[in-house]
């Protein structure tokens, strides 16, 4: 009985969280959000803070600043004034104040030298895993040659490796983002791996082996074979909501056995061009 009540309570909050992510470009009020899940408007502020670990206003601000951070770091051609307006600020000055108060550095400084480790500290909410029933397809994946930036170390610094890979892509043009598939290969589970030992490859499809380069990008290949594929819609921060049901529920019931190759992702679209709630990622689990 208690589990059922807690699950229903979580589902109501998940409606609120989903709505916020889908309407970040709009004005959002506590009264409006309380109505989404039929909470009392008089108690919603306290309920939200107790459940998530921060106030509703702060949560919305942090999500808007997260999108702005990605634009600053990965879209250098975009003007800060445009990023500020898209984040819902009336002028660059108010955006700069909010950004500096949150991350300890101005948007222009963050653009020049992002501090992703400190940045991640601002996003440690008490958001529970959102349950989902994954749709699993068995597919054949063809062997694919990729250019790889090998990330080794804490997950908080993956974006530094991403930036290096983007720089290589732009400099060489050998794996153009517009018409070359982008992959991520997860050798380790970040929830159970020591941060210094975490391994993750950022890759882009290429037609030939990669020549020596200053970024350290190397040539690898994703082997062909049978895979279980799940399509995840939404933020990359929530990929676990599709991965864990795949391992925990589907795999034991399927009778399938895993091949000796790690789980990997095919990113069908990417930030900052795509809002987080509109991201689409195919998750591949290699099978024998």
Describe this structure in words.
It is a single chain. It contains ten helices and eight strands. α5 (about 80-85) packs across α6 (about 90-105). It folds into two domains: about 1-120, Arc Repressor Mutant, subunit A; about 135-285, Regulatory factor, effector binding domain (Multidrug-efflux Transporter 1 Regulator Bmrr, Chain A, Alpha-Beta Barrel), CATH 3.20.80. It has an eight-stranded antiparallel beta sheet. It is globular. With about 290 residues, the protein is an alpha+beta fold. Helix content is about 40%, strand content about 20%.
By CATH reckoning, the class of the largest domain would read Alpha Beta
Could you give me the name of the CATH homologous superfamily of the largest domain?
Answer: Regulatory factor, effector binding domain
Mean pLDDT: 94
Question: Got a strand count?
Answer: 8
Low-confidence stretches: none
In short:
With 288 residues, this protein is of the alpha+beta class. The chain has helices at 2-22, 30-36, 44-52, 56-74, 80-86, 92-103, 107-112, 116-121, 158-172, 240-254, and strands spanning 136-141, 144-152, 182-186, 199-205, 218-222, 225-233, 263-267, 280-286.
């Amino acid at each position: 009985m208690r589990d059922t009540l807690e699950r229903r309570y979580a589902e109501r909050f998940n409606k609120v969280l989903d709505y916020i992510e889908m309407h970040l470009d709009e004005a959002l009020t506590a009264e409006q959000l309380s109505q989404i899940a039929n909470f009392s408007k008089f108690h919603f502020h306290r309920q939200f803070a107790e459940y998530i670990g921060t106030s509703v206003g702060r949560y919305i601000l942090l999500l808007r600043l997260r999108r702005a951070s990605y634009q600053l770091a990965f879209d250098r051609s975009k003007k800060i004034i445009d990023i500020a307006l898209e984040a819902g600020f009336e002028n660059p000055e108010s955006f700069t104040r909010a950004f500096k108060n949150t991350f300890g550095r101005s948007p222009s400084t963050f653009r020049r030298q992002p501090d992703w480790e400190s940045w991640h500290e601002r996003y440690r909410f008490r958001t529970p895993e959102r349950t989902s029933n994954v749709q699993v397809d068995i597919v054949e994946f063809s062997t694919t040659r990729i250019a790889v930036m090998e990330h080794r170390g804490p997950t908080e610094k993956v974006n530094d490796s991403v930036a290096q890979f983007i720089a290589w892509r732009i400099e060489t043009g050998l794996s153009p983002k517009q018409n070359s598939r982008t992959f991520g290969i997860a050798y380790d589970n970040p929830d159970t791996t020591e941060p210094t030992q975490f391994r993750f490859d950022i890759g882009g499809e290429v037609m030939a082996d990669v020549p020596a380069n200053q970024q350290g990008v190397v040539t690898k290949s994703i082997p062909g074979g049978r895979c279980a594929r799940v399509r995840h819609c939404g933020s990359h921060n929530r990929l676990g909501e599709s991965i864990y049901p795949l391992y925990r529920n589907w795999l034991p019931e399927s009778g399938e056995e895993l091949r000796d190759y790690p789980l990997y992702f095919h990113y069908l679209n990417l930030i900052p061009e795509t809002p987080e709630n509109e991201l689409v990622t195919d998750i591949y689990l290699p099978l024998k």
